[in-house]
C-alpha cells in the first residue's frame, strides 16, 4: 500500500505553506504561501507535517565511477551516487554532501552534476565526468527557489533553472544562468501568466526551453520559450493532469511526468503545438521528477511515496518497470530527484 508523505519543509523553517486553517492545494485557491524550501511533493499531497531532523550519513565516498545514477532527498543533506544498472539494490558508492531542500537534480551534456539548492537559493555545479566530483561553481539565483535545471555545459555555457516560486511567494519562473570564475548568477528571468508553480524544465540542443507548471487557476501548463528568451508561448495539445519533470529523448521527444495521475506522456514538437506520440504510461509508484539514460532506453524516476528510485525500460511506445533502488534512501526524507550520468543524448 502506498504511504502518504507529510509536508516537506526544512527543519528550522518557521514558514507554513498556507495560512492557519487553510488546506494546502496544489491546484489553486492557496493563500498565505511562503515559498522558501517548498517541495512539489508537499503541494501535490496537500498536507502539512512536523519538522524533520536533517539526515547525515557519515559515509566516506569510494573512488568515483563514471557511469551511474544520482538520487536526492528533499529533507536530506546528501545527493547519492549509485552504480549503473543496480538491479541488486546495492549501496551508494559516492555522495555529495551539505546540500539542502533539493527537489530534482540534473546532469548536463558533459556529465557535470547540477544541484538546485533551494534553501540557499543557489545552484551548485560539481565537475564530471566522474560522479560526485569536486564543487566547481556556486551560482546565485536572485529570482526564486531553484527546483530543477537543464543545459548542455553548465560551467561554460548558459543553462536554465526552474524556480518553483519566486523569493517573496509570487509566481515561479525560469532563470537563465551563467558561470564565471567558479561563481555565477542568473541574470535573465523568464515569466508567463500561465506559470504559477513551476516544476520541471528542459532545454534542447537548439537552446529552446520548456517549463512544466501549474497555473494559478489550478490547471497544468507547458510553456515554450524559443531560444530560452521572450515572453513564452503556452503549448497546445498538452494532455498532462499535473506538473512534473521533463526530459528529452534521443529522438527529440519531450518526455513529461504528470505527478497527480502518475503517468508519463511523450510529445513531439511543443513549439508550441504538441503532438502526443506515446502514453499516457502508468508509473509503478507516484513520482514528480525523472530522467533518461544516455541511450534513452531507461527512465529513472524518484518515488516520493515509496522512498526509492524506480527504473523502467523506455521507448516512445511504452515503459516497463524493471527494479527499484532503496538502499540508503528514506521515504520520510522525500526522495524526489533522479538523474543518470551520462544523460540522454538529446
Features of the shown structure:
mainly beta; Neuraminidase; eight-stranded mixed β-sheet; four-stranded antiparallel β-sheet; 1 helix; disordered N terminus
Alpha carbon gap, first and last residue: 36 Å
Largest sheet: 8 strands, mixed
What is the overall pLDDT average?
Answer: 85
- CA-atom Rg in angstroms: 18 Å
Any idea what the CATH architecture is?
Answer: 6 Propeller
Q: What is the CATH class designation?
A: Mainly Beta
Helix content: under 10%
Structural class, by secondary structure, is mainly beta
The overall strand count is 24
Question: What is the N-to-C succession of helices and strands?
Answer: HEEEEEEEEEEEEEEEEEEEEEEEE
When the domains are counted, the total is: 1
Label the overall shape.
globular
CATH homology group: TolB, C-terminal domain
Total helical segments: 1
Portion of residues in beta strands equals 35-45%
- Low-pLDDT parts are 1-36, 45-62
CATH topology: Neuraminidase
- Tell me the strand order in the biggest sheet: 4-5-6-7-11-10-9-8
Structure description:
The structure is a single chain. A hairpin with a 4-residue loop joins strand 18 and strand 19. The protein has a single domain (59-341), classed as Neuraminidase (6 Propeller). The longest helix is centred in the N-terminal third of the chain and has 6 residues, at 40-45. Residues 1-36 and 45-62 have low confidence and may be disordered. With 346 residues, the chain is an all-beta fold. The protein contains 1 helix and 24 strands. The strands form 5 sheets. The protein has an 8-stranded mixed sheet with strand order 4-5-6-7-11-10-9-8, with no helix packed on it. It has a 4-stranded antiparallel sheet with strand order 3-2-1-24, with no helix packed on it.
Amino acid at each position: 500500500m502506498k504511504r502518504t508523505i507529510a509536508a516537506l519543509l526544512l527543519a528550522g523553517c518557521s514558514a507554513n505553506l498556507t495560512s492557519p486553517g487553510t488546506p494546502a492545494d496544489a491546484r489553486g485557491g492557496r493563500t498565505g504561501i511562503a515559498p522558501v524550501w517548498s517541495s512539489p511533493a508537499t503541494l501535490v499531497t496537500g498536507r502539512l507535517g512536523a519538522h524533520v531532523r536533517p539526515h547525515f550519513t557519515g559515509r566516506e565516498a569510494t573512488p568515483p565511477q563514471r557511469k551511474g545514477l544520482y538520487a536526492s532527498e528533499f529533507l536530506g543533506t546528501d545527493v547519492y551516487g549509485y552504480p549503473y544498472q543496480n538491479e541488486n539494490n546495492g549501496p551508494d558508492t559516492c555522495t555529495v554532501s551539505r546540500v539542502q531542500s533539493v527537489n530534482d537534480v540534473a546532469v548536463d551534456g558533459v556529465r557535470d552534476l547540477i544541484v538546485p539548492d533551494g534553501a540557499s537559493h543557489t545552484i551548485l555545479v560539481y565537475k564530471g565526468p566522474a560522479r560526485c566530483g569536486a564543487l566547481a561553481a556556486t551560482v546565485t539565483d536572485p529570482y526564486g527557489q531553484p527546483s530543477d535545471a537543464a543545459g548542455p555545459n553548465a560551467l561554460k555555457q548558459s543553462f536554465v533553472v526552474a524556480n518553483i516560486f519566486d523569493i517573496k511567494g509570487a509566481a515561479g519562473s525560469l532563470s537563465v544562468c551563467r558561470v564565471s570564475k567558479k561563481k555565477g548568477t542568473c541574470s535573465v528571468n523568464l515569466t508567463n501568466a500561465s506559470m504559477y508553480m513551476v516544476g520541471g524544465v528542459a532545454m534542447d540542443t537548439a537552446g529552446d526551453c520548456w517549463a512544466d507548471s501549474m497555473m494559478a487557476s489550478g490547471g497544468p501548463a507547458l510553456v515554450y520559450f524559443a531560444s530560452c528568451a521572450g515572453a513564452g508561448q503556452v503549448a497546445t495539445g498538452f494532455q498532462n493532469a499535473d506538473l512534473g519533470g521533463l526530459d528529452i529523448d534521443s529522438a527529440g521527444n519531450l518526455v513529461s511526468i504528470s505527478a497527480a495521475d502518475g503517468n508519463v506522456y511523450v510529445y513531439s514538437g511543443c513549439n508550441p503545438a504538441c503532438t502526443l506520440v506515446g502514453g499516457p504510461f502508468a508509473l509503478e509508484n507516484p513520482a514528480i521528477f525523472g530522467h533518461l539514460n544516455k541511450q534513452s532506453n531507461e527512465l529513472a524516476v524518484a518515488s516520493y511515496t515509496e522512498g526509492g528510485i524506480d527504473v523502467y525500460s523506455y521507448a516512445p511506445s511504452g515503459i516497463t518497470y524493471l527494479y527499484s533502488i532503496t538502499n540508503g534512501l528514506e521515504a520520510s526524507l522525500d526522495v524526489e530527484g533522479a538523474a543518470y550520468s551520462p544523460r540522454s543524448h538529446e
